[in-house]
Amino acid sequence: MVGAELMAASAEVIAARTGRMAQGLTSAKGQDFKELSLMSSEKAEALSASAGAVTASAGAIGQRLGRVAMDEGAHALRAAAAVTQARTPAQAAEAQFRYAMGWWSRAAAQAMTLNGELLKAQAEAMAPIHKTAVANAKRLRKKT
Asked: How remote is the C-alpha of 103 from its chain's centroid?
């Protein structure tokens, strides 16, 4: 929904501003320099806010993945200890199997968590751009 709304608002803003620029070439009043300057400053502001959101998300995700990697290292150490302390080859194989199955479960859970975090990061990164485009479309509609 947000993506479609962003695309529609962007198309509306581009059409309105392109029309104003063309009109400014033939009008005695000339170009609307206030509107032209907004084109750059608003984009820079929205993209800066978007980059800030991406940076914050990447930092948080990186920290969590670092903790997960450390935790997995601890699991591997415990598994290695269990294998070396096994009294029979069957016990060693059982310890390896337990670690492998646990790793698979943890990896699947981490993949799901990361997927959710990336989707959230994407939404947070798009929010300032969406907000600006929708506000511009609304404002430019009033000017016509």
From this structure: 27
pTM assigned to the model:
0.78
The answer to whether 46 touches 129, Cβ cutoff 8 Å, is yes
Rounded distance between C-alpha atoms, residue 123 and residue 50, angstroms: 10
pLDDT, tens digit, 9 for 90 and up, residues 69-97: 999 999 999 999 999 999 999 999 999 99
Instruction: Dump pLDDT digits (tens) for 15-73.
Output: 888 888 888 777 777 777 888 888 889 989 999 999 999 999 999 999 999 999 999 99
3 state SS for the chain? CHHHHHHHHHHHHHHHHHHHHHHHHHCCCCCCHHHHHHHHHHHHHHHHHHHHHHHHHHHHHHHHHHHHHHHHHHHHHHHHHHHHHCCCHHHHHHHHHHHHHHHHHHHHHHHHHHHHHHHHHHHHHHHHHHHHHHHHHHHHHHHC
- Pick from 16, 1, 52: nearest CA to 135: 16
Which structure tokens are listed for 116?
């959710």
Beta-carbon count within 10 A of 6 CB: 19
